[in-house]
């Protein structure tokens, strides 16, 4: 996980996880993101907890081993970042 | 909202809202439900808070006027129920 990605995600301890809130300009761009994330989840078998409303999505990536965040957990979070179209 | 639907949703007060947890046998049936719900949201302009993981979805329908649940709010919740394929 590169430095840029590390600044975007909040690292939590109980339970160990990475959290990030994504803000969107509207429902359509949110839905595109959620569809891409669903495909990424199926590809990687990583199923983060996702909560969303009209124009936001909160993503929580839990440590797969439930003890400590692995490089794979962090790599998944970084791939989630890459689903966002560069502005 | 018919009696059956009223038993399925938990009525909360602070803030006034309806909450229901939907459980699925797998990610595919969850995704079908979420896609249908997204279409219903666009049709009705009701955007409930949704949180989901691998095989569940928690739906919270807030009172549109932020004070009391209207018949329209309840009708939307019932339409969400109807997105589930009868087992």
TrEMBL record, chains A, B:
InterPro entries: PCD_sf, Pterin_deHydtase
Origin: domain of life: Bacteria
SUPFAM superfamilies: PCD-like (SSF55248)
Catalytic reactions of this protein: (4aS,6R)-4a-hydroxy-L-erythro-5,6,7,8-tetrahydrobiopterin = (6R)-L-erythro-6,7-dihydrobiopterin + H2O
Primary enzyme class: lyase
E.C. number(s) listed in UniProt: 4.2.1.96
Keyword vocabulary terms for this entry: Lyase
Keyword Lyase among UniProt keywords: yes
Keyword Signal: no
Assigned protein family: Belongs to the pterin-4-alpha-carbinolamine dehydratase family.
Protein name per the record: 4a-hydroxytetrahydrobiopterin dehydratase
Source organism (scientific name): Nitrosospira multiformis
């Amino acid at each position: 996980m590169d430095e840029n990605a590390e600044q975007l995600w909040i690292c939590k301890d109980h339970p160990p996880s990475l959290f990030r809130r994504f803000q969107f300009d509207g429902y359509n761009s949110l839905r595109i993101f959620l569809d891409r994330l669903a495909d990424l989840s199926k590809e990687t078998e990583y199923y983060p907890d996702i909560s969303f409303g009209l124009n936001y999505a909160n993503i929580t990536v839990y440590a797969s081993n439930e003890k400590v965040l692995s490089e794979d957990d962090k790599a998944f979070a970084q791939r989630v970042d890459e689903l966002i179209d560069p502005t």
